[in-house]
Amino acid sequence: MMKAYVNGIELSYHIYGSGEPLVLLHGNGQSHGSLKRQIDFFRKNYQVITVDSRGHGKSELGFRPLDFQIMALDILCLLDFLKINKYRVIGYSDGGIIALEMAIYQPKRQKQMVVIGTNYDASQIKWWANIFTFIVYLVSILLTPFSFFFRRIRAQMRLMIFHPHIKEEDLARISAPMLAVMGEYDVISKADVQKMVNLVQRGEMVVIHNGTHFLIRQKPRELHKIITSFFDKDVTQI
């Protein structure tokens, strides 16, 4: 584990393998360890950079409200620290939202992006998936005064319920080729993902048969095959 002081907090990260830089970003409430299957697979051909997002894992929460813009800036600042100019990225769930924000901030820096089970507006999460999150959020509000642990949980749940709100005109600025992967039974709808894919300049989508939101663990082999095929395409800028 390595630490870097970036954007006002201490960020925890790991680097595996060698080759072209590939950033892996985990989902809400997780840490880089949840992407172990992806790390083990992609480290054979890439320099894999995994990060515990702000307020997750071993990274600090800081004192600013948690949102995806600041989390994206954290990762871009880390890449500056590591002297990495161009990068590919795979973002799972909330990690995909961070990848979108990174591409909006610095469109030319991103070579290719894969987002898995990712929405661009908070309203796109299906209602039944939000009920549990809201209950945990309310409990964490009550327990925050008694424990720093619950302050982190509250920040994570608040992020999931009230964010993101990425504007459609901002999505249109994303110029790197983007692949959106989702499960057939995901917590977001196919129509919303298709809309996102249509809004970016070069987007495509794949729906995995019988897949859920948890594709990174449920169907890793199929997922890796789809991503590898996407990465193998020519990425020459149009």
UniProtKB/TrEMBL annotation:
Keywords: Membrane, Transmembrane, Transmembrane helix. InterPro entries: AB_hydrolase, AB_hydrolase_1, AB_hydrolase_fold. GO terms for molecular function: triacylglycerol lipase activity. One of its GO terms (biological process) is glycerolipid catabolic process. Signal peptide: none annotated. Pfam families: Abhydrolase_1 (PF00561). The keyword Zinc does not apply. Residues 21-123 form the AB hydrolase-1 domain. The chain crosses the membrane at residues 127-150. This is Pimeloyl-ACP methyl ester carboxylesterase. It comes from Listeria rocourtiae.
